[in-house]
Amino acid sequence: MASLDPANAPVLVSLNSSALYLGMAAAGGTGSLAIALFGDRWFLLVGAGLMAPATGVAAVTTRARKGGGPRRRAPEDTNGRTDAVT
């Protein structure tokens, strides 16, 4: 991520961390709500039901390695090297 825009790397890393913490908080809240509403007997099915759309979103938004189109290249450093962004 930082190689895509080195000037804004601290902002990108902090936004990524914030999204991670927000996701963990949402998961805890969703889990406790599922247990309160459905009981612990149905907890696994609620998790599976939430995992299915999450997997679909990940599949749609993630480019495949083959045929994913051209990749952006990182800017050249002071030594004239370029590193491909993966």
Automatic annotation (TrEMBL):
TM stretches of this protein: 12-36, 42-62
Species this chain originates from: Streptomyces sp. R41
Protein's name in the database: MFS transporter
Region described as Disordered: 62-86
Biased composition (Basic residues): 63-72
SUPFAM superfamilies reported in the protein's UniProt record: MFS general substrate transporter
Taxonomy, superkingdom: Bacteria
Keywords in alphabetical order: Membrane, Transmembrane, Transmembrane helix
